[in-house]
Each structure stands twice: as C-alpha cells, then as structure tokens.
C-alpha cells in the first residue's frame, strides 16, 4: 500500500496546525456531536473536559430543543453535572451501549439526520 502524501495525517490535521482551534471550529460546524462518556473520560482532568464544554457552548447558541450534543455511555457511569450557559450535560438524554448495540445507535443518529 502506498503511503499518503507527506503533509497528510489520519486525523486530517496538517503538521504545525493548531489542533485546539481546529477542533473548536469543527464542533461549531458539526450537525451533531457524539460525546463519548466513560468513567475514565468523565474523571479525566484535561482537554476532554474542554471538548465537552465546547460542544455544550455551541449548543447554547442554537434554538431550544435542538439535538446537537448526544451523550453516549460506553460503560456504566453517571454523566457529570457540567453546565455551560443554560445547557446541562446531565439533562441531555443519553444512550447506554449496555442497552443498545452500536449499529442500532448509529442507525438512530442517521435517521435523525434524515439519511
């Protein structure tokens, strides 16, 4: 298999690009964002917490009842009581992968997007 061109990376970032700014821009442009929650991700100190906040911040600028940030629990855990503006992560309906198969979840998201 041939190697990709030199400046290409699997995540689409160009070497030297500000990945934090790029992530923020991509979240603002997204139609939906899936927040993957686990005991590790909710307890982790660092950028993952900021990613959750960025998604909720983007949602705060959207009309009420817009489904944008979709919490997905990949293991048994309690979503953190993270609030940005008037948006609370704990108030968003989440999906628990212990109760539903991943392909069923993805089909639900695609159906919601009209695909």
TrEMBL record:
GO BP annotations, alphabetical order: signal transduction
Record-linked SUPFAM superfamilies: Toll/Interleukin receptor TIR domain (SSF52200)
Annotated TIR domain residues: 13-98
A Pfam family matched in the record: TIR_2
Name of the protein described by the UniProt record: TIR domain-containing protein
Species: Stakelama pacifica
Organism phylogeny: Bacteria, Pseudomonadati, Pseudomonadota, Alphaproteobacteria, Sphingomonadales
